[in-house]
Design goal:
The protein is mostly helical. The protein is 40% helix and 8% strand. The chain has 2 helices and 2 strands. The protein has helices at residues 30-41, 54-72, and strands at residues 8-10, 17-19. It is elongated and about 85 Å long.
Length: 77
């Protein structure tokens, strides 16, 4: 009979092996979970891709068109 594979990962904080069945998975302990939470709260971790807000994108495009029009207009005297 084939053996059942035990899934495990390493704790992202201390790199200790953690089984999927552990209560604190994917962390090895409450301490490591709180350290990770603290890094998120203090800005130690960031999301690498920008958030694409359609409203902000439309505002940026409108500002860019306005600046291009200003460049094309002759200076007022």
């Amino acid at each position: 009979m084939p053996r059942k594979r035990v899934r495990s990962l390493r704790c992202p904080t201390c790199r200790k092996l953690v089984l999927r069945s552990d209560a604190e998975f994917p962390f090895c302990s409450e301490r490591c979970r709180l350290i990770d939470l603290g890094k998120w709260a203090s800005g130690g971790y960031v999301i690498s891709t920008p958030i694409n807000d359609p409203e902000a994108l439309a505002d940026a495009e409108a500002e860019q068109r306005r600046m291009e029009r200003l460049k094309q207009e002759p200076p007022k005297q």
